[in-house]
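Working notes for the structural subgroup meeting. M.R. asked for a predicted model of this chain before we commit to crystallization trials. I am recording the input and output together here so anyone reviewing the notebook later can reproduce the run.

Input as submitted:
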Amino acid sequence: MTRAALPDAPSAAMIYIVDDDAHLRASLVNLLESSGHEAVISFDSAEAFLRFERPDVNSCLILDLMLGEGSGLHLQAQLQQDAPPLPIIFMSGVGSIAVSVQAMKAGAETFLTKPLRQNELLDAVETALAKDRQRRASCSTLKQLRARHQTLTPRERQTMALAITGLLNKQIADRMGISNITVKIHRGHAMKKMGARTFADLVRMGEALGIGPAPF
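Returned structure, recorded in token form:
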């Protein structure tokens, strides 16, 4: 592993490089640092990269397709369980259309051929980091919604699930076997706990959580 001088700020964007060519790794680190990226770490193998404890910050991976010990596609497959997934920029000197299509279908951001064009690589890095920021923001929002939803009582969850389908309070009361007033109380508590300012907000939250009406 080759580590550039990392900044003290824990929120700095991280750029990882995995390639078994030491000269290329050094060149990429120098290029990225000279372009203003302060946190760049390179690895000579997929195993070394996987052993590294990555901080939970904005990041992307520049990955060689043909590593010495195996295909970069294998590492890509191992990283697909990450949430959010790490954006991957593939590079190869022997890439084929079939392989590039496979990499893109598996979620790669782009596929570059060696020798790399500096501007093309830098643009790809900026695009990958921007997408990662968006994914992290969405993932953070969803985690917050799930945490809020867990604070609801079972009855409040049922009321929310039925309400966001468009049922009226009276219909929900009939379905749940409770009074109309109790439904209003559960609905009000659900909106407050979820942080929904309007019923439309509650509906959007339910859609984001994938909530459907509870069976009765």
